[in-house]
Amino acid sequence: MLGAFPDARYTVEDQLAEGEKVLTRWSCIGTHKGELMGIAPTGKLVRISGMLTDRIVDSKIVEEWSEWDALGMMQQMGVVATFPKVMRKVAA
CA 72, CA 92: separation in Å to the nearest integer? Predict the structure, then answer.
């Protein structure tokens, strides 16, 4: 991700902790300037968001679960059709 979006700026939107778990809701904005999963740079600015859940033991992250909007990122890069475009093609 850092090679594909070298100007990426991450923002922690919310962070909650209870017991061993920490939930972080984040957002990111960056320009697609490098190859990503075989996709050549598009030069497009994309905004993505996601959440991390970390389990912490003895001040160390021992497990992490991640969810983020990969489909939305691909749509913004123009490599995956958005829903309305798909529906127009199906209806035609």
Answer: 25
The 3-state secondary structure of 36-63, one letter per residue: ECCECCCCCEEEEEEEEEEEEECCEEEE
Quote the tokens at residue 13. 């939107």
Per-residue pLDDT in tens (0 to 9) along the chain, 92 residues: 889 999 999 999 999 999 999 999 999 999 999 999 899 999 999 999 999 999 999 999 999 999 999 999 999 999 888 777 666 666 65
Q: Which two tokens stand for residue 87?
A: 């529906």
Count Cα atoms within 13 angstroms, Cβ side, for 56: 14
Residue type, 20: E
Coil vs helix vs strand at 29: strand
The identity of residue 24, as a single letter, is T
Q: How far apart are CA 86 and CA 92, in angstroms?
A: 10
For the chain, the helix, strand and coil percentages under 3-state DSSP, each to the nearest 5: 20, 50, 35
